[in-house]
Protein: Methyltransferase
Amino acid sequence: MNDLASLSSLRTPEGRALLDAVRDTDPAEELAVATRLRREHPAELVSAALGQARLRQRAVAKFGAADAGRMFFTPNGVEQSTRASVATYRAGRMKELGVGSVADLCCGIGGDAIALARAGIRVLAVDRDPVTVAVARANVEALGLAGLVEVHEADVMGVDTTGYDAVFVDPARRGGRGRIFDPEAYSPPLSWAVEAAGKAPRAALKIAPGIPHEAIPEDAEAEWISDSGDVKEAVLWFGTGIAPGAVRATLLPGPRSLLSSGLPDPEVRPVGRYLYEPDGAVIRAHLVAEVAQQLDGGLVDATIAYVTADEPRATPYATAYEITDQLPFNVKKLKALLREREVGILTVKKRGSAVEPEELRKKVKPQGPNSATVFLTRVAGAPTMLVGHPLG
Ligand SMILES: C[S@@+](CC[C@H](N)C(=O)[O-])C[C@H]1O[C@@H](n2cnc3c(N)ncnc32)[C@H](O)[C@@H]1O
Structure:
């Protein structure tokens, strides 16, 4: 959906009926369905409905089928919106901080505004793009949240946030050529968002997880969030009451949060019986030392984020493997070992190795009923293969 007229037409009784009719259309059938529907409905409405149905299908992964099936989207809006799991967690944190009202600056199609409202927080949602604003408004209405969310079309740089308990900024981070890594190239730039944060009692600024730690303001708490093992975003918090400079890794579902305790880098030690692969949020937050301490472990190499230990310990912050073999990097030797063990299902993981997992799998041609995991990495500087299996 690209314009306001399409959105309005989809919200009429005819548009709603068409949206229902095309909801589960298989992409392969789309042409036939469109031809049939055009006999009874305007062509623009039919294509708007089919386009919206496609966007809703894409949005299910972020919003779940029930909400995605009632919400409206633009292609950029689906892409840029915060997934419900992360938005709900963040809204919960706002609520715990005693926040009752938030100015959501750069609200997009309303991913965060919806979660904030559902947490019982009053929201002023602002975006400068007219279609996006109309979609956000349609979404809060569709989900019965219009009483808590006021949607405004404006440039956030001119919005007065006085009187709000907190400010939330989720800047646009995609340029014409993929993701933008320079925080000053965000729209609005990070420096503006930090200034806006300084004017509110509390604030949260969403940033790309790849942000260099040096770019994090000293008075912020930085949080990296992963969902089911995938790093989704980082947030700079202000006014949380936690020591400025604190760093946190939060794993969803859960949530499980690990806070920095200022430990030095872990020691390098020989590979023990267990290998732990820290969650991406832990690695991005530079909290591998905290996890190594919990596991009574050390690193396999000073530059590699694999923790090795002698004991199996349960931790939500890393996936544990039992290591059965350690070999210098040598494809022939690996092939022989896997043949001897009758390994047909091989998972290849790598850190600190340029070898492509698919290439390796082709070369060793795994065959047999057993499964194994091979880690291509460096151990004390030397290219190494560690073979093992995940701990149950
Ligand atoms: C990453 S999206 C926000 C997504 C939103 N949090 C969600 O979950 O749906 C960023 C939004 O910022 C808006 N934007 C960028 N610069 C802006 C500005 N100066 N004023 C208002 N909106 C702006 C864009 O139109 C875009 O919709």
Remarks:
- The chain has three domains: 4-73, 79-258, 274-390.
- The two ends are 46 Å apart (CA to CA).
- The longest strand covers residues 318-328.
- DSSP finds 13 helices and 18 strands in the chain.
